[in-house]
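FAQ: What does the model actually see?

It sees only this:
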Amino acid sequence: MLLSGGLDSYTAAAIAREEGFDLFALTVRYGQRHFYEIEAARAVAHALRVERHVELDVDLRAFGGSSLTSDAPVPKDRAIDPAEIPSTYVPARNTVFLSLALAWAETLGARDIVIGVNALDYSGYPDCRPEYIAAFERMASLATRAGIEGVRFTIQTPLLTLSKAEIIRRGIALQLDYGLTHSCYDPDPAGRPCGRCDSCLLRAAGFAQAGVADPARAR
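And it is asked to produce this:
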């Protein structure tokens, strides 16, 4: 499972656990400016009782190209249009992350990779779409020894067609503590969310539509 420390990856992993999977968590430190999510990932991994949690350094700041891996300003207070790819898009990030997860999965003998992508309430990232996930599954069967030997890898995307409010309701039903999670792209030095970036706005709207308070805002 790819574990960022946000509420989506937490919920996706919890659904996988409910379905009987043993969980191996991969968190990538890619030079993201919102590094507080790493601490959140550790808390979430502990709460999920994962078999093993690997934190891997792949510093994408060397490439730049995103306001999450550079000093470029993070967009604030914008009307989110899924047809527009924002500056917070990190070039090929999910492809990099899924490739790392695929390498570990093949080593473990695992056949399922869990990722918390969502194609409804999101910021317009091209690597969150169903056609991308399907293409990566096909690639996995071609690019691995396990695939050549007939093993089929499945990218589990339990949140793909859910709204943010539906995701939150599902997590509450699973008794998840969303106070452990971090979503903000541009937190202050103390880690407090800005409340104005895309991720903060989508999270706030999700909790409002779900009719529950965000526990992370109360801490």
